[in-house]
Design brief:
This protein is an alpha+beta fold. The protein has a domain at 69-100. 33% of the residues lie in helices and 16% in strands. It is built from three helices and three strands. The protein has a three-stranded antiparallel sheet with strand order 1-2-3. Strand 1 and strand 2 (82-88) form a beta hairpin. The longest helix is centred in the N-terminal third of the chain and has 17 residues, at 2-18. The relative contact order is 0.09.
Length: 107
Amino acid sequence: MKKYLALAALVLLLQGCAGANNHQTIDTGLAPAPTEKPTLPAKPTTSIDTGLAKAPIGLPNPADKYCLEVGGQVINKTTAEGVRSVCQLKDGTQKDAWEYYREQIKR
């Protein structure tokens, strides 16, 4: 009798561990989480020129703008630190655009 009682208890225990899939779902109005990664549309084979890429972005460099206003020419030079602007004045002298701008603004 003890064997049957132990066997019945074991069966009930295993059934409880397995659990029934009787979960109630509550509709929250939210979309369910996606189960698959979204796929991106294929890239178009032809491009449409909207002219937007040619439009200037942001504000001009104040030092470069000042150099041009006084009749100079802006020359971009690539150095180990990156690109720097040089202002070539009417008389041919070249100065760092930012240094020249700061010198002239202080006056």
